[in-house]
Every structure is written in C-alpha cells, then in structure tokens.
Amino acid sequence: xxxxxxxxxxxxxxxxxxxxxxxxxxxxxxxxxxxxxxxxxxxxxxxxxxxxxxxxxxxxxxxxxxxxxxxxxxxxxxxxxxxxxxxxxxxxxxxxxxxxxxxxxxxxxxxxxxxxxxxxxxxxxxxxxxxxx
Length: 133
Prior knowledge:
This protein is mainly α. 85% of the residues lie in helices and 0% in strands. It has 5 helices and no strands. The longest helix has 31 residues. It starts with 6 loop residues before the first helix and ends with a helix.
C-alpha cells in the first residue's frame, strides 16, 4: 500500500521538480560564472545533499535534501554538455563525445536505480540514498 505521507514517497517527489526548475538557470550561471566552476559545484552540492539524506531525522529534512540533489543535478548537466560542446570541434569528434556522454548517463542512471533499490532492500533506504557520498 502506498502511503503519501511516508518518507520514502516524499523524498522521491521533490528531486525531479527542483532539478527541472533550476536547469535553465544553472546553464545561465555557467555562462556567467564559468562552466568549469559549475561543473565542480554540481557534484559537490549533490554529494552534500546525499550525505544530508543519510543523516535525515525527519521527512522535511529528506524532502529538502532531495530538492538540493535536484539542484546539484541541474547544475551538473548543462555544464557537462557545454564543456563537451566547447572542447570538441563540430563534426564526428563532437558527435562521438556527446554520444559517449549520453550512453554513460543512461547506463549509469539505470544501474544506479537498481543499485539504490538493492542497497535499500538489503540494508536501509539511508544507504540507498547516501551512496553518492
């Protein structure tokens, strides 16, 4: 039975929303502040939020940390693509680089979901969500 007030449901709901809403602003920040700086900031925000999820003591803390994970993801994605576009000349080389990026992102996202589920099932949901640290 799915309980809407249960923490495992609440933490899933917040990350995609915060990530989508900040994606465009993060791309603009990369243009202004520097793509490499944003590329380093994104995983730092994501890892810190993951640690906070593992230490969460309330559903509100989980929701806030999941939102921060979404922001970290939104910072990382546009800066990664911008760095690829800027460092590879247009043509087959850039196409190959973006294809490798897309393949790695797809495979790791699929594998990460399964790994998170296995860790949550075998140990705890905290381990499943804090694995990014």
